[in-house]
Design goal:
The chain contains five helices and eight strands. It has 179 residues and is α+β, with helices and mostly antiparallel strands. The protein has one domain: Metallo-beta-lactamase, Chain A. It has a six-stranded mixed β-sheet. It has a two-stranded antiparallel ribbon with strand order 2-3. The two termini are 33 Å apart.
Length: 179
């Protein structure tokens, strides 16, 4: 892949996003017409192999499975390195990079989203992360966490059904058991 140029990491340098804030390390892939796609790896988020793409000249972020614009809980594949904490970090990176004009495209949801939708999704993830961290920190088992229904208030918006709610509790719980 001789066309990919690796950019410096934040420890040796940084790049500035549309909002002027530093963004994580990435590689640049030249595209047709001089456009450049900036690729960034999201460590332990949906899985341990997720990447997202930023087209700076178009002010567009392609999130892959890191942001869901379908109003549902995400899938976090803990068996393959996924972690709710990484999902929060990835969405925080999108928010640092985005402006109110940034177009944000997800592989999970047909409509192009904006910064407000990513903020809402990140807030849900952060709430779930914090609640589950407290439960795991207090020594709760997975079955106790399920019985407690820690995300009942979130379920009305984010769970399509009871199975979705149970699965998300399990994914959040197992995020903390993998570390």
């Amino acid at each position: 892949m001789s066309g990919i140029r690796h950019r410096p990491t934040l420890s040796t340098g940084s790049r500035r996003g549309a909002g002027g804030s530093s963004i994580p390390p990435f590689a640049a892939l030249p595209l047709h017409g001089g456009r450049e796609a900036l690729l960034t790896h999201a460590t332990n988020a949906h899985t341990d192999g997720d990447s997202w793409i930023y087209l700076a000249d178009a002010n567009v972020i392609f999130t892959g499975d890191l942001f869901y614009n379908n109003g549902r809980y995400p899938t976090i594949d803990c068996a393959n390195g996924g972690d709710i904490r990484g999902m929060v970090r990835a969405n925080e990176a999108f928010l640092k990079l985005a402006t109110t004009e940034t177009k944000i495209a997800s592989s999970r949801g047909g409509a192009v989203a904006g910064k407000a939708q990513v903020a809402e999704f990140r807030d849900m993830l952060a709430t779930a992360r914090d609640r589950m961290a407290a439960m795991v920190g207090n020594g709760m088992s997975e079955e106790e966490a399920l019985a407690a229904k820690p995300f009942a208030d979130l379920d009305a918006k984010w769970a399509g059904n009871e199975r979705d709610s149970v699965n998300f509790i399990r994914m959040a719980y197992n995020s903390f058991k993998r570390s």
